[in-house]
Amino acid sequence: MISPPFREGIKAAVPIWVAYISTSFTLGISAKAYGLNLGEIVLMSALVFAAPAQFAALESLASGKPALQILLITFLINLRFLVMSAAIAPYFGRVRRAASCSGVGRRSSRCFMDRQTAARHVDRRSPCPDSSVA
């Protein structure tokens, strides 16, 4: 039997996964058009978490930009996660840092956060679990 909180989580995740799937297909088609092979596309998806950074890297790779410039572009694009992390950090106040993002421990959603999951979590209209933060 599936528990109600788990079922609620699945319902909340479906719209996010629809966005992920469509973006992934679009990125794969674009990467193939830019001349990347399947292994390179999979490696890029595994190493670069943000789709906007992947699209920017594709354009830069195709035009022959230096690696340092591509890294700088992707870094600047990913700075937006700093603000999202600050907004959602109070909800993870009781999670041990070492266990939440380590390769050995159980992985927390804050390790794989993007704009959809941050918005979905903050939009739950539940009070912050840490009573010291409003």
Summarize the structure.
The protein has seven helices and no strands. It has helices at residues 4-33, 38-47, 51-62, 67-78, 80-88, 97-101, 115-122.
Distance between the termini: 36 Å
Q: How many strands appear in the DSSP assignment? A: 0
Strand content: under 5%
Tell me roughly what share of residues is in helical segments: 55-70%
Biggest β-sheet strands, sense, barrel: none
Q: Radius of gyration, Cα only, in angstroms?
A: 18 Å
Return the string of H and E elements: HHHHHHH
Coarse morphology: flat
Give the mean pLDDT. 77
How many DSSP helices? 7
Query: Structural class of the helices, strands and pairings?
Result: mainly alpha
**Unreliable residue runs:** 102-110
Question: Main attributes?
Answer:
single chain; 134 residues; mainly alpha
